[in-house]
Amino acid sequence: MSTETLPIIPPNPVEEFLRTDRMPHIWCPGCGIGTTVNCFVRALLGSKTDLTKLAVVSGIGCTGRVAGYVNLDSFHTTHGRAIPFATGLKLANPKMTVVVYSGDGDLFAIGGNHLIHAARRNLDLKVICVNNLIYAMTGGQTAPTTPGDVITSTAPYGTYDPAFNLPYLCEAAGAVYVARWTTFHVMQLAKSMREMFSKKGFGFIEILSPCPTLYQRRNKMGDGLDAMKFYKQVSKIKHGTPTAEVGLTKSGEIIVGKFVDRERPDYTSMMQEHFQQELGDKYIKVEEPVCS
Amino acid sequence: MHADPTGVLTGSHFMDGDHACCEGALAAGARFAAGYPITPSTEVVERFSQRAPKVGGTFIQMEDELAASITILGAVWGGVKAFTVTSGPGFSLMMEHIGYAVMTETPCVFINVQRGGPSTGLPTLPGQADMMQARWGSHGDYEIIALCPNSPQECFELTVKAFNLSEKYRLPVFVMLDEVVGHMTEKVVIPAADQIEVEPRHFTTKDPESFRLFQPCGEEQTPEMARAGDGYHLHVTGLTHDERGYPNMTPPMQDKLVKRLCTKIRDNVSKITITDQHEVEGADVVVVSYGITSRVAERAISLAKQKGIKVGSLRLITAWPFPDHVIKAIAPNVKGLVVPELNLGQMVREVERAAAGRCRVLHVPHAGGTVHDPQVILKAIQEVAR
Amino acid sequence: MAKGAVQIVVERCKACGFCVEFCPTHVLALSSAFNSQGYHPPHAVAPDKCSGCDLCGMFCPDFAIHGYRNAKPAKDADGAAEPPATGSKEETDNAR
């Protein structure tokens, strides 16, 4: 007879990455941000990234709160300015892997200018953009990503201005990795994040996520689960689709997949090579932060 | 601690204030700057962009001052000393991040080469009209330190001092010069590195389990510092937070945190204050001035002395925190204080407040664009001496 | 014994329903119990169907559930191995 032993329940792999003393978090029931964090953690576990050298920088908004919940060096900065903060962090300590984790409004409205310049420079930043098509934290106002004919708190009769096509914008600005997934595509999203972490340069992943309390509810589109079912139903995985063609509408097709994966030298490499060339042995390269 | 010789350009130089500020930053150990061009400050970062690659530093010209002002904060948390430079319009854009630096207790330096304002104003001409903005420009309650050099030599020395104070008290410190000091070329003597006192960053030696990033300690009641990448799992937020840095948005935490951010300066005003006083003892009139105006005031004071007036001078080297105790000591013993400044009434309000009616305070305003005519200041001295 | 099982942190659950909907073998359903916040957490209604794939854990926005594979059963005391599970490679090979 074999000896009975109590089964050891392996812990949820996400636990060691959470500031568990701050659980439960503030996100609404059916909000997809937590789901993206699961994918993020799985991506980190599957990659070779040294976690002490990983920092998460976020802005303001619901997605911005991710920084406060992850048990890593994390920085909750000002609205729209996660990317310049991340730029300073990365340039001061080139060995850090710097992930910018923020929302569509934070990165593309107030933060839009910083995003395009960071992409232009091809700074080695990994940008995870949770796109819930709205300004959620402040109560559901129109975002630059809100599709047309959507009711928001500042467009009570429905939106009429055009929305950004985020992958198109990022590709045009110079990003070397551009992908879009939804919170339904958990396996593909984790894999995509892992790919992005191992690629040097400006990487961008857009993740469509439900905002049940504001977007869904105001537009009588059900709850978070309804949004997830909608993503499952209307999304099509079409890798390599030209980004100009992946714009979103209120209830139309959602094209997901990896759209851009190209090679360009990253900012730090370009800078270092240039100074090496121009200054020779007078150049002192920054490897580690030096602080007197 | 002494300066790292790598950044110290020891020697006797002929350089302007802007360039001297850059050398001060390098001597203090700054190895990162982010900036955006704005007259009359641009030369500071132009020089830094040239010096940085040869001393192990990094410069990046950001897309605007909003970016520059937070890029330096990211660099500080990455583990280096960092600064940015601007003038009026850019200073206005930096206000949110000044508040963020205060709230997150990020040591850094902001250099403002003041010009005529408001708005685009006089890009190439002096003003001293951002003094109140340095103190109150960001939202919320907070305290800062501001230093006012009146020569290129002081630009060097006070920029070093600014970095030292920022590390000591873990907050942003301002160097408030003006276009004339920034663009005047004078002798600047930069000593040997071992003659330059530099305050090192107070990195913690505690282990990650017990370290609290926002727990005050030591004589200055200032928390120890850390940086990303050392396994501390730091959390830094602009939200009202507890000693771990975790958001705690409640009235008791607000009371505790914001009061502490203010008292760490308010309780140390006498330690922080630097003034330059001449013949204040026994004077009938004391001229209170700062920056370029103090040099014009010197001329007026000398003319007044020739006329037999007992006049002394009080130069504010630290304009903020305002040295109430210095004014309180002088006011009862003089007929009045004369306050010339290149604005229509900023630091004079502080002088009036601190004097609390114990003596007359005569303001000598100037809308900016050039320096005072010494005769105007002389007339004010004579008026008070009557 | 099922291939896998789930562990639920009842107090974190906000009853969004993602785990119930997307479990490939329909192991879960929202229970009639309440947690202290008033939400109905899920429970395993078909636990023997659980493969331990942890898709529920991947989907859960509240980190309130995860799936895990049960440890493989041990050999008997007399040394004979347990019969392989249906559809395993060994059985297919033996059948050739």
Short characterization:
The complex is a heterotrimer of chains A (292), B (386) and C (96). Chain A has 292 residues and is of the alpha/beta class.
Can you walk through the features of this model?
The complex is a heterotrimer of chains A (292), B (386) and C (96). With 292 residues, chain A is an alpha/beta fold. Chain A has helices spanning 33-46, 66-69, 82-92, 104-108, 112-121, 166-173, 186-197, 212-218, 224-234, 267-279; strands spanning 54-58, 73-76, 97-103, 125-131, 177-182, 203-208, 235-237, 254-261. In chain A, helix 1 packs across helix 7 and helix 5 (112-121) crosses helix 6 (166-173). The mean pLDDT of chain A is 96. Chain B has three domains: 5-195, Rossmann fold, CATH 3.40.50; 216-270, no CATH class; 275-385, Rossmann fold. Chain C has a domain at 4-69: Alpha-Beta Plaits (2-Layer Sandwich), CATH 3.30.70. Chain C has helices at 18-22, 55-59, 89-95; strands at 4-8, 28-30, 42-44, 65-69. Residues 79-96 of chain C have low confidence and may be disordered. Chains in contact: A-B, A-C. At the A-B interface, strand 2, helix 3, helix 5 and helix 10 of A face strand 2, helix 2, helix 3, helix 5 and strand 12 of B. Strand 2 (73-76) of chain A pairs parallel with strand 12 (235-237) of chain B.
